[in-house]
Amino acid sequence: MQRQKALRVALLGCGFASESHLKAWRMVPGAEVVALCDPDPGKREARAREFGIGRTFASVADLLREIETDAYDIATPHETHRAVAEQLVAAGKPVLCQKPLADTLEDARAIVDLYALRQVRLMVNENWRWRVWFQEIKRQLQGGAIGEPFYARLGIRSPAVVPTVDHPDTLLIPRQPRLKTMPRLLILESLVHHVDTMRFLFGEVDSLYVQTRSPAGTVIGESLVTVVINQGPVLGLLDESWVSYGYPQLTSAESMVVEGSRGSLFLTTDGRLTLHRADGRIERIPVDTSDFYVRMYWGAINHFVECLRTGAPFQTDGPDHLKSLEITLRAYESARDNSVIRWGSP
Fold first, then answer.
1. For the residues of 126-153, what is the DSSP string, one character each?
2. Residue 53 exposure: Cα atoms within 13 Å on the Cβ side
3. pLDDT digits (tens, 9 = 90+) for 214-244
4. Which CATH superfamily is domain 129-296+325-342 in?
5. Of 269, 315, 310, 260, whose CA–CA distance to 289 is shortest?
6. Which class would CATH give 7-120?
């Protein structure tokens, strides 16, 4: 049997998220990151040494001129995505881009339209739907474990951007200093994941209503958000905070409950998933949560590679991501105007 040709990948951006990208790429059979690109020489050389990558470049232009690869993985800050994506499209190779695709719908649509026009494949790395517990919740819902779902509450509460005993300078800001000055923070940086997850689990959004607060003196953007979201028969509540003491430090320590006509599913912050049936039976659903953070990156990246090899459509292609991004960005409109945002027929 002829050996499958290895997929050669270039990673653009060597900041905070790049470590998880590179660890995940290592887990994909027949794929190899062969080049890194970042304008900061310290960051790109440190990642190159850490992961044994031989070629590094300071600019996209240098990368495109000096080395040919089979695909590109964009892990740069979201405000750079349009410029980077517009340069990469000239190579005609598939692109995986970290969420959000852009911080405006205009820029995101421009990227999606350009890639469609050039017939270049584009996937957005909306990796939280690949978290092991959300994948299992999806399987339980598809199997009818709780009957017809009618309510879902999903959220993260943590003291991520306020000083604590363990993290006097806060948990997140030293790792991601740009968060400190982002005028749009929790919704664009974190809630976008949960919007995509809710769409993955329950389908398209009919309407939403949003309230935000900014009680943290360490950041200028919103750090407390509550969203009421309607998805057909499912009434959803997204409740998110980075300023709440008494909760787990990790910003990935989320909880969820899904209620249905024949039972409820409960997800706790330690990744435990429990099914409570209408007949009184309680069942612990086994979920392997080991190394879950890198494995969610692997889930998205492996999906990208499998679709390239089979020709199957990406779950989170450009048009699909535009739906999640529009919901995310219009959440700010709802909060600003104290209004309900509606989609589809009135």
1. -GGGGSHHHHHHHHHHHTTTTSSEEEEE
2. 29
3. 999 999 999 999 999 999 999 999 999 999 9
4. Dihydrodipicolinate Reductase; domain 2 (3.30.360.10)
5. 269
6. alpha beta
